[in-house]
Design goal:
The chain is an alpha+beta fold. It is about 40% helix and about 15% strand.
């Protein structure tokens, strides 16, 4: 393996040449502002580039600096995030923005960046290399795949040993003269050429020396340990609408959708189990039964009922009336948005 960091490994040289011709033009690559780069990395976790780009522009417009993000309240941040899912990302982003403001400056090293809430090794490496030129390798799913196939590595990528091995290998390959370009090239090469299925091996500039191609292992590398089994969870809500208002509450900590708003929760809220609303069942109208909504490692099977009483009923503890005309000011889980759009006219 390469030891002299003043020279460039043939693998890296080939990749950089490919990137110069085929690399993607992305707005956060046109700046070295660590805030803009950090925001892009958080938005793009578990999110497609096409969807993430619009959200990045939206968030940059609403919160153009880390100071403005830190000064916002959580409701506003969650509202701007609505539709992206994985809302813990938004809460961590907000918390970390306040950490940065308290520090007085944006952390500028791989090590220091990892002190921020929600910033792990991958995100820290991306910011450190793209914004500050630090020679530290970014290792994501694309990088795992490229390295596993090219070097013929069968160590599971989601094992502790695999994480150490692939980071060490990427760190050996990254040229000190172009860390940002190399990291971007690795990610784009995995996304555009060395794809998960049907990789474009006939167009690959590394094909002649690729172990997986020679050994016909492109479909079996990289190796990944079996995922956690997806668990099913039954949930049910009552959408209570009186004239121009709807009953909502903010979800608490320790469960999915923390801090977001929901209608009357018929299963998980103990304040509802003996409330007068339950005596009105005959007036409820079912608007969705067994609606399937997939989260990470969890499948929600959700029932929704609609209740439009003539008189405004008392609400269980924790709920409040919200005008329908102001509903867009409340951050809702995407599942609620979908159902509300169908049944609230």
């Amino acid at each position: 393996m390469l030891k002299d960091k003043n020279s460039v490994h043939p693998f890296a040289a080939t990749l950089l040449s490919w990137f110069a011709e085929h690399g993607r033009c992305l707005p956060w690559r046109e700046t070295t502002d660590p805030y803009a780069i950090w925001l892009s990395e958080v938005v793009l976790q578990q999110t497609r580039i096409d969807q993430g780009t619009s959200y990045w522009h939206r968030l940059m417009e609403r919160f153009p600096s880390v100071e403005e993000l830190a000064a916002a309240d959580e409701d506003e941040v969650l509202l701007q995030w609505q539709g992206l899912g994985y809302y813990s990302r938004a809460r961590n982003l907000h918390h970390a923005a306040r950490q940065i403001v308290e520090m007085g400056q944006f952390p500028s090293s791989f090590k220091a960046l990892q002190s921020l809430k929600g910033v792990g090794r991958y995100t820290a490496a991306a910011i450190a290399s793209f914004a500050f030129g630090e020679c530290v390798a970014v290792v994501d799913g694309n990088v795992y795949r490229v390295l596993a196939r090219y070097f013929g590595i069968d160590t599971p990528i989601n094992s502790s040993a695999g994480e150490r091995l692939f980071f060490s290998l990427a760190q050996e390959l990254i040229p000190a003269s172009a860390p940002a370009l190399f990291n971007q090239a690795m990610m784009d090469f995995g996304a555009l050429c060395c794809t998960p299925s049907s990789p474009h091996c006939s167009l690959c500039p590394l094909s002649l020396s690729c172990h997986a191609l020679r050994a016909q292992l492109t479909s079996s590398l990289p190796i990944k340990l079996k995922k956690v089994k997806v668990k099913e969870r039954r949930m049910a809500w009552l959408i209570v609408i009186h004239q121009d208002s709807i009953a909502l509450r903010r979800r608490g900590a320790g469960d999915i959708w923390q801090g977001l708003w929901e209608p009357v929760n018929l299963i998980d809220d103990p304040h509802v189990s003996s409330h007068v609303l339950l005596s009105t069942r005959r007036a409820w109208m079912s608007v969705a039964e067994g609606h399937r909504h997939l989260l990470t490692h969890r499948l929600l099977l959700a029932d929704f009922h609609l209740y439009r009483p003539e008189e405004r009923p008392p609400l269980p503890e924790g709920y409040q009336w919200v005008r329908l005309s102001e509903l867009q000011n409340y951050a809702l889980p995407q599942l609620m948005v979908e159902v509300f759009n169908k049944c609230i006219k």
